[in-house]
Amino acid sequence: MGEISIKINIADRVYPLKVNMEEEEIIRRAAKLINDRIKEYQENYAVRDKQDLLAMSVLHFATSSLKAEKKVTVDDTDVAEKVYQLDHLLTEFFSK
To answer: How does pLDDT run across 34-54, given as a tens digit for each residue?
Structure first.
């Protein structure tokens, strides 16, 4: 699919982007998440500077991303261990 031009509003600033059509929805959803997080910080903390709010939002999403990455690694290791154990049990069963 081809590229399309869209405008994304983040923290009251408009960013014109060229994106693949398949990515448009996810980019719009990401922008909404960022704006929602900024709004939440604005309402709950005495921070009004947009750059500070953006920095706090970036920290939140980067931390979430790293936690998810770590969880996937741990889950993959757990699954690999269980497959190894199952393989070992099957090998023992069929070698009798």
So the answer is: 999 999 999 999 888 999 999
Residues whose CB falls within 8 Å of the CB of residue 78, separated by 6 or more in sequence, listed in order: none
Amino acid at 73: T
Coil/strand/helix, residue 47: coil
Q: Is the pLDDT of residue 14 over 90?
A: yes
Q: What is the pLDDT of residue 84?
A: 82
Helix (H) or strand (E) holding 20: strand 13-20
Distance CA 84, CA 19 (A): 42
Q: What proportion of the chain, given as a percentage, has pLDDT over 70?
A: 99
Integer-rounded Cα Rg, in Å, for the chain is 22
Are the CB atoms for 3 and 46 separated by under 8 Å?
no
- Give the single-character DSSP code of 12: T
User: Would you list the domain boundaries of the chain?
Assistant: 3-94
**Helix crossing, 24-44 with 50-94: angle to 10°?**
120
